[in-house]
Design brief:
The complex is a heterotetramer of chains A (about 270), B (about 210), C (about 210) and D (about 280). Chain A is an alpha/beta fold and about 270 residues long. Chain A contains eleven helices and seven strands. Chain A has a six-stranded parallel β-sheet, sandwiched between helices. The longest helix of chain A has 29 residues. Chain B has about 210 residues and is mainly α. Chain B has a domain of about 90 residues. The relative contact order of chain B is 0.05. The model of chain B has no long low-confidence stretch (mean pLDDT about 90). With about 210 residues, chain C is mainly α. The longest helix of chain C has 25 residues. The radius of gyration of chain C is 26 Å and the shape is extended. The two termini of chain C are about 15 Å apart. The chains are: A alpha/beta (about 270), B mainly alpha (about 210), C mainly alpha (about 210), D alpha/beta (about 280).
């Protein structure tokens, strides 16, 4: 029987790993048992309804895209943001149908397109308007293989021609974020955007009316889906954020008292 | 002969793509775009074949017969094009996802959390006043950003005030990201223009 | 054979492989470390198989377009032809090292790929002009900070006023570092949460229904 | 009043093609006729230089060419100058890439440009080619090199390379350098080489990734970094090999200046328009 030896210097890191994993697991379990945490108000999330209302008022379509991510060969974070974006698509499509606005989605990969098509179809089914759904009319497929440029150019061109009332950009984005958001701004769209990457959030803040920054995208998805697991996972992140903040404050105070080396060696076991 | 031809093709393709900006979308851009799609896909195929040969087939021929199993499992990736057996493609993908998540999250507590916390124990006395003030600003930006992302607590009262500070800290970060974009983007274009001017146009015109 | 379709197989594969990687990071058990390396090697092999997927998708798209006689069909056929040229030259021995392959790479792939990416230079500039407006206090902060950073990176900043890069570096070193760290800690926590959800089979988009 | 408003409107909605032509011109002129603006050396670049200078001769350095052709104009100059410095210091680089065509770029655009008298492939440097499988592949490479790259870029078995006789895992590296334009990037290297094997890490960054990288530099997890073409230019000055980066930075400067002026004009037009419309209302 081989012996398991804890690798030196990894004790604290193992403890932290376990603390985070167990706490997230517990909050998720609590939430699925019914103690669903409330998620704070997100102005950008509330703006979705307003944005759809604007499309109804102007009698123009609303446009939606998740950007150029696919599920294959992406990081876990990218996949999670894409999932969040797709949950929001279902939510937005429901609102659009109930208010009488047309929603048109653009996407670059066949596998994502299949999922989006299913989402839209079931939304139409729920509203009792199954016959009105047509993949050709409501889904724009702009194929790409590696670079995001053709997709961005395709969507931007369409936005400038059609001038939709509203533009939703929710999901994991690459550089197409800037091109599409700028085209939307210039076409006079009311834009609601959200992505998890800091670099591309910057473009959205500059060009869009409402932005979901970083984890706000996950929070919005949790609100849209009413999924207790997602809300629980957010609560888990918050619990850990709390001890991280506390530890930073303790560390600063300890440093102030001149006992930093002791704390550092304690944290480096 | 091939060298000169290559240089010409190189330059023509470059100009064809730039022509998307000035004068605008045109057939030459389209052709160049699809050529790009084709070559990138082709390159990936060759690289894939090479890795499969090196990691799978040649060890298998060299005596490690058990490598046949990963190769067969790997082939399941292609069942995704079939409606009936598409689910099989999820198995190799599952191993890729699982292993990828495992190797990435195992080090996150150390790299992205503990080491970052430890680096935030900054001195605010016993150093020059400017360093002290700067450190305080860093801590304010850090803590307020952390507070901003509390998702399951309603932001009221003091928390709301801190969050507002957090939002401005994020704007500083976004400003930096945005400012840094210009450098990267211009560099890419400078690379192409340098080629066009120095390696194509100058020799063509007989200039140094 | 219906149990083969169940997502529990996927979840079991994900959980086991992830757990193996995590365990061998903290604990030293030779057998398991060897197993982990073998799994990683297998993953590399699988990843190599997925590299061909792009080409397959492309072929499928071209086939459909030709069938429908779509206006883009000739372009797609061109893409397939170029793709085949790339594959054939790549397979000429020495594998991926023949002069023909290097020629294709140097004169077709490298310029198209990098010029396509370089086009962003135009879009950034037009976006800066048309959309970067100080419409709110937040956007104003972003603009001002961004301008300092611009002149920190561009050597011309120090010539306009030597203080510009000094302020820019200070911003980068202190307030931006704080905000960036806060953001990345959040991303890290989110990543661990997603990792756990995937390992437990709660992310249906990845594990299947 | 209306005339004024019309002008501002026209400025605000200027045809983008004018901007595009302006950019082509402002980048082309400094390339044709560089001015040679002086470059200040930043602290982070200095720490990269100091670290490499202090490495003992013969140390093995891992160099990650984590870029495709598209990222090459920015990362290539950095990789080239790092490699030159490595050869000058008689260190032994191992080239790898998690990007399909990174190793090819190294062989086509970096190695031929190096000034490396008497250096022999396989003895003084090796190119181990492509690592498939993203972070998982990197983890495997770190724990056992031959498990994932049994053959090098030229299809020679790695056991036959003289330099690789004693190099079995990342524990044998004295330094890792990564120049990346996405994934795998510095975070993958930090997780797999630095925390797991204690390999010091230097990053040749794309300028866009610098804001996310600085916290790791400040926490000393990253030894030093150079940012984009600017960093490459600084490094060229430091190592006394002025070349492409130094010559191209003028073009970058003029582009930045033009964009900044555009932003100012855009904002002034917006403010002026608001001002004039307000007056009309009252």
């Amino acid at each position: 029987m081989a012996e398991a030896i804890l690798i030196p210097g990894k004790t604290v890191s193992l403890i932290v790993f376990l603390v985070i994993m167990v706490s997230i697991y517990l909050t998720m379990r609590n939430a699925s048992k019914g103690k669903v945490p409330t998620i704070r108000t997100l102005p950008a999330y509330n703006a979705i309804t307003e944005a759809v209302g604007r499309a109804v008022e102007l009698g123009k379509p609303a446009h939606y895209t998740t950007g150029t991510h696919s599920f294959v060969g992406q990081t876990a974070g990218g996949s999670a943001a894409l999932t969040a974006g797709l949950s929001l698509l279902a939510y937005i499509s429901d609102i659009c149908l109930s208010k009488g606005a047309t929603l048109i989605a653009s996407c670059p990969y066949p596998e994502v397109m299949t999922i989006e098509s299913e989402i839209l179809r079931s939304s139409y089914l729920k509203a009792g308007m199954e016959e009105e759904y047509s993949e050709v009319e409501h889904l724009r497929y702009v194929p790409i293989v590696s670079s995001c440029a053709p997709f961005a150019a395709g969507v931007a061109g369409w936005l400038e021609r059609e001038k939709p009332a509203t533009n939703f950009l929710l999901g994991p984005f690459f550089f197409e974020s800037l091109i599409i958001a700028e085209a939307g701004y210039h076409a006079g769209c009311f834009q609601v955007a959200g992505t998890t990457s800091a670099g591309y959030s910057a473009f959205f803040v500059a060009c869009c009316d409402y932005v979901l920054i970083g984890e706000e995208l996950y929070a919005a998805a949790a609100l849209a889906t009413n999924d207790p697991i997602q809300a629980g996972s957010l609560r888990g992140s918050d619990v850990n954020r709390a001890w991280i903040i506390a530890l930073i404050l303790i560390g600063v105070v300890v440093t102030l008292l001149g006992m930093k080396p002791a704390l550092m060696s304690l944290l480096s076991i | 002969m091939w060298g000169i031809l290559g240089n010409w093709i190189n330059a023509i393709l470059t100009i064809a793509i730039i022509s998307f900006a000035v004068p605008g979308e045109n057939i030459f851009y389209r052709i160049a775009e699809y050529i790009m799609i084709g070559v990138t896909a082709g390159y990936a195929v060759v690289q894939g074949i090479r890795v499969v040969l090196n990691l799978g087939i040649s060890p298998m021929m060299g005596g490690q017969a058990y490598m046949l199993l990963p190769i067969l499992l790997g082939l399941l990736v292609y069942t995704r094009f079939s409606k009936q057996y598409g689910y099989l493609s999820r198995w190799p993908i599952a191993l890729m996802v699982g292993s990828g998540i495992g190797v990435s999250i195992r080090a996150i507590p150390e790299v992205d959390i503990m080491n970052q916390i430890k680096a935030s124990f900054l001195p605010i006395v016993g150093v020059n006043w400017d360093v002290a003030v700067s450190n305080i600003i860093l801590l304010i930006a850090l803590l307020s950003t952390l507070f901003y992302f509390f998702m399951t607590v309603e932001q009221k009262g003091a928390l709301r005030q801190i969050s507002v500070v957090g939002r401005y800290s994020l704007m500083i970060l976004f400003g930096a990201y945005w400012g840094s974009q210009l450098m990267t983007r211009s560099t890419m274009f400078i690379g192409r223009m340098s080629f066009l001017i120095k390696d194509f146009l100058f020799p063509l015109l007989g200039l140094g | 054979m219906s149990f083969l379709r169940s997502r529990y197989i996927n979840v079991a594969i994900i959980f086991t492989s992830a757990f193996l990687m995590i365990f061998t990071y903290f604990f030293k058990v030779q057998v398991l470390s060897d197993a982990a390396t073998l799994v990683q090697k297998t993953v590399s092999l699988f990843a190599a198989f997925t590299l061909v997927l792009g080409a397959m998708n492309l072929t499928l798209i071209a086939y459909r377009q030709v069938q429908k006689k779509a206006p883009t069909a000739p372009f797609s056929v061109l893409a397939i032809v170029v793709m085949l040229m790339m594959i054939i030259t790549g397979l000429i021995p020495p594998l991926m090292n023949s002069p023909q392959f290097n020629w294709m790479y140097n004169n077709i792939q490298a310029p198209t790929d990098s010029t396509m990416y370089a086009m962003m230079v135009f879009f950034v500039a037009s976006a800066c002009f048309r959309a970067f407006r100080a419409r709110s206090k937040e956007a104003l902060v972003m603009l001002v900070i961004g301008s300092f950073i611009i002149f920190t990176y561009a050597p011309i900043g120090a010539i306009i006023w030597p203080g510009l890069p000094v302020i820019g570096s200070w911003i980068e070193k202190y307030p931006m570092t704080g905000a960036s760290r806060g953001f990345s800690i959040g991303v890290a926590l989110g990543g661990l949460g997603i990792g756990l959800r995937i390992m437990l089979g709660r992310e249906k988009a990845i594990t299947g229904e | 009043m209306n005339e004024n408003k019309g002008i501002f409107d026209k400025i605000e909605n200027m045809n983008v093609r004018i901007i595009y032509i302006l950019i082509i011109i402002c980048i082309a002129i400094p390339i044709i006729r560089p001015v040679g603006l002086p470059i200040q050396i930043s602290e982070s670049t200095m720490s990269v230089y100091d670290f490499i200078e202090k490495l003992p001769e013969g140390s093995v350095v891992l160099v990650g060419f984590e870029t495709g052709a598209a990222g090459w104009p920015e990362l290539g100059p950095q990789l080239n100058i790092f490699m030159q410095h490595i050869f000058d210091k008689n260190l032994k680089p191992i080239i790898v890439s998690g990007n399909v065509d990174g190793a090819q770029l190294a062989e086509m655009y970096t190695i031929p440009q190096m000034n490396k008298p008497g250096k022999v492939y396989g003895k003084d440097w090796v190119n181990l080619g492509y690592i498939a499988g993203g972070e998982s592949g990197i983890a495997a490479f770190a724990s056992s090199i031959t498990s994932i790259t049994p053959r090098d870029y030229f299809n020679t078995p790695v056991e036959n390379l003289e330099m690789m006789k004693d190099i079995k895992s990342a524990a044998d590296f004295k330094l890792a350098i990564v120049c990346s334009w996405g994934t795998p990037g510095h975070s993958d290297y930090l997780r797999q080489y630095t925390t797991n094997f204690g390999v010091p890490l230097i990053v040749g960054a794309q300028t866009t990734t610098v804001p996310g990288l600085v916290p790791y530099y400040q926490s000393k997890q990253v030894v030093g970094y150079t940012s984009g073409l600017r960093g490459a230019g600084e490094y060229e000055v430091l190592t006394h090999h002025p070349g492409y980066a130094v010559a191209s930075l003028d073009a970058a400067s003029s582009y930045h200046l033009v964009v900044f002026v555009l932003i100012v004009i855009g904002n002034l037009a917006m403010v002026a328009k608001r001002f004039t419309t307000k007056k009309e209302v009252t």
